[in-house]
Amino acid sequence: MVSEFTDNAFLINQLKQGNERAYAHLVDAYHHRLCVYANSLAKDKGRAEDIVQNVLIRTWERRSTLKTEFTIKSFLYRAVHNEFIDQYRKRKSVSALEKNYIEEMERITTADDAILERLLSLVQREIQNLPPKCKKIFLMSKEEGCTNHEIAERLNVSKKTIEYHMTKAFVILRRKANVHMGQFIP
Q: What pTM did the predictor assign?
């Protein structure tokens, strides 16, 4: 079934109007992916779930402040990252080196949203241009959160084949991003 909320601006407008079905779609579409991302940061599935739950609840509570010109996907990923940083600060006394690292990460993540949007758009476009098998494996890993072992079993190929295609995807995406970075930075 094709969702009526596939258009980013429409989804955000429906959220702003308090449409609970739009929120349910948001949760269904992004919960798992955000948990995978949060777990890559926190290295703790329980904390990752808490981070994502906090972000999704806060998104609903502050839905009136959402901006239709930004993608909901990048907003959610940025919010998960910020929530992770907030929790990290609360849980741990920060050494000088860690403090510098966190400050640098904040500087990077608070860079001009337009630059981030264009870079995200470039990466998404280049993912679509990956060779078919490479693209399929990359998306299974990064969007579905499958491990290399799970992908190998599902596709009936060796784990080395999965590793090869993941490495190839990252090389291609990194090369394309480096070529286009001059377009994004003034």
A: 0.52
